[in-house]
Structure formats: C-alpha cells, structure tokens
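Same chain as my last thread, 89 residues:
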Amino acid sequence: GKIPALVDGSLHVFESVAILIYLAEKTGKFLPPTGQGRYATLQWCLFQAAGLGPMFGQFGHFTVFAKEKVPYAIERYTNESLRILGVLD
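reply #2:
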C-alpha cells in the first residue's frame, strides 16, 4: 500500500524513479533521449531514491518519531545525512 504504482492500460510500473522515467519517455519531456543531459537527470533521480530519500527518512524516524531513542541509530543517520549533504555541496 505504500509503494507508488502506475497503471497505464496493460502496463504496470512501480517505484518512483521507474514511474518518472516511464512518464518522461512517454511524453518526451523532462528526460533527454540521449547524451549527458539524460544521464545527469538519471543520476539525480537515482541519488535521491537510493541515498538522500532513505537516509533522511531514517534520520527523521530515529530523531523525531521513534518511541525509543536509540543513540547508535541517531548518530549513524545524522552522520550519513550530513555526509550526503556534503556530497550535494
């Protein structure tokens, strides 16, 4: 119930980046068909989906929402979030 999904006729696509790629290719917008622009766009989408999103999600969970504070988890996801921000910088 929490995984994004798209149904377009008989085609079923799930996961955010796969849906974005499908929609971009279907409409011919937002994702160049070839070259450096295509790969730069894919890099940013995958960086968000594989790094930034999950790590910031864990950071938020353990620092704000967890019923029990787990120092190791707070430190680990704080440090990883800061590392990712350094990569962005």
